[in-house]
Amino acid sequence: GTGADNDLYINQAIVFIEDAIQYRSINHRVDSKSLWLYRWYYSRTCQWILSLTITVILALAFIEKPSSLTVTSDVRYRLPAWNPPCGLTESIELLCFLVFMVDVSVKSYLIGWEEFWKNKWLMAYILTLIVSLADWIVSLSFFCTEDVRIRRLLRPFFLLQNSSMMKKTLKSINSTLPEMASVVLLLAVHLSLFTMFAMLLFARTKDGQQDKEWMGYFRNLPDSLTSLLVLLTTANNPDVMIPAYSKNRAYSIFFILFTVLGNLFLMNLLTAIIYNQFRGYLLKSVQSSLFRRRLGIRAAFEVLSSMKETPANAQQSYASVGALLQVLQKVEMDSRCKQAIMRSLKMCSCDQLSAAQFQKLFEELDKDAIKQHPPSPEYQSHFMQKMQYAFGHPYFGYLGNVVALANIVSICVVLVMDADKQPSERDDFFLGAINCFFILYYMLEMLLKILAMGLKRYLSYPSNRFDGLLTVILLVLEIATFSVYGFPHPGWRPEFMGLLSLWDMVRLVNMLIVFRFLRIIPNMKFMSLVVTTLLDLVKNLRAFAGILVVVFYAFAITGIMLFKGAVVPLGNIRYIGNKLNTSWPFFNLLLYFKEKCDFMALFGHFQAEVMYCLLYLLSVNLICRWAKIYFVAWWLISSVIWVNLFVALLLENFIHKWDRRCHREPLSDIEYQRTVELMFRDVLEEPTEEELMEKLHQHPHLQLCR
User: Fold this and answer.
1) What is the pTM of this model?
2) 589 and 511 assigned to the same domain
3) Nearest residue to 121 (alpha-carbon basis) of 25, 254, 239
4) Residue ranges in the chain whose pLDDT is less than 50
5) What CATH number is associated with residue 399?
């Protein structure tokens, strides 16, 4: 009946608006049961379960054989790691696979079979699950003794396919590769030419004493190419030129030319090309996101205009304000946007909305998120008003910065004076006394600011929350120190008591005091601009961090499989030193190269040091020639391409903020929060009416009345 149809239209409008808010595609089933399933799938609970499952399956690599559950990473001193019994991690993995199978089944059903065959990500999702399950079965059949596990390499795909922004970013990177390849090819030509020059310049001679450069770095073509490639990363600079420079200073011209052309020109040219091309492709991606938002809003309007209670009009369609209010009450969206839209509806005197009016209402979604600080309390007492004016004035904050600087200087003076003293000779009285004085001032400053601004307004500023939290922690630590070791006095060196010694407690307090000095950043406009740019990157560019995790994870797993057991640790270096009975300088040199060799054994583990030694091993030339391909690939992807992409987005974000700062001076009580989509909002083009309607008529599951 009419009531059931109207309920369906309301539910469809709710889902379409939620799709628009999240920049999701509207090409999914729109019947009542499918809409319920769709909202359930995209609910916070389901998405949280899916995110937790992805986190768990990625984290399994830390406890699977070879396990990383050791206190130290030093192969000389660490105890044998705990390896889980066969079937434990496999059972957890199976549960994760079951969640993923439910995920891909729901997604496939909701978009329909026609759209499923067009969706390459879903087909790759199913293929990844099939291969992973087959590898899981093989693993159990071998009782978990096999070294190569294909499914571990495929795990990052689950993270990748779950984020639409990561997919767009990956697509933008893929589109940028042809332009990047031209510069990489030029870089390869540069490297090859200078390699040939080096082999001719540092060729072997009859005098063996003069052939140190040839012997160490340019003995053959692979060694020459490797030496200059590492020089391009500056990892072996200036070691690679020292033998030749010792023979003749003029040889330095060769290395200077190579470094200037490679590092200063070609690498920066690559950054410029990546910035220009990637920004363009990312802009196209954000443009498609805007189109999805406008399409979702227009789809909601079309279904609401199809309701029976809406009067038919041959010229133009209208949506009922009452129906829209019902939709807004049920839709999941930011409370700020919802309240702004409802205020606009109440101010509107009409009962019907045209398509243009409907679309204009939801432009609130595109605006900056504005955070307005609560007002200060109003005191009746004249004395309290004077207090509020004095302690709420910016100069009071500047005074606090000066006091914090004085605290830092006093700590530096004490550390310099006590640098060469033995722990038994150190007197902690002076440092403990000045810390006590400054912490009391910080506490007084915080209380006076709360008195002047009010608690809500004080806590609304991130800098105040940072300052207040550290002040409270410092006060708690100081009280704990006094309760255990008493008050400071000359010769204050009590015996160790409790969990931490007195010196440990004092050091912890001093580290927090130094960290607290960062409170000066909001008072320095240019520094504040840089810091807010970095914070915005952290908050808004999670997709880039996700792809970086995917790259690190894949290379780390590959390194474990390729290099596990490649180098056996030599044992405890102290016994080698005692046996050789050498001097300390030689002992330290031997330890230096011993630790380089031990890095290879770290490929048996999955912690961060695995990722750290990827290029490090290449620089000291401790790996076989074929293994260099792995490290060069890592350098190209992580350093050459990915770091330049990050620099490109850092520049874009900084330039955007700089332009906004020049054109609009922010008010003291307002903070503007921007997203990646809003960053390009000024240069995006609005889709036309014809484009929206054409796309709506192509919807596989929605039949419009017109």
Assistant:
1) 0.72
2) no
3) 25
4) 314, 571-622, 664-674
5) 1.20.120
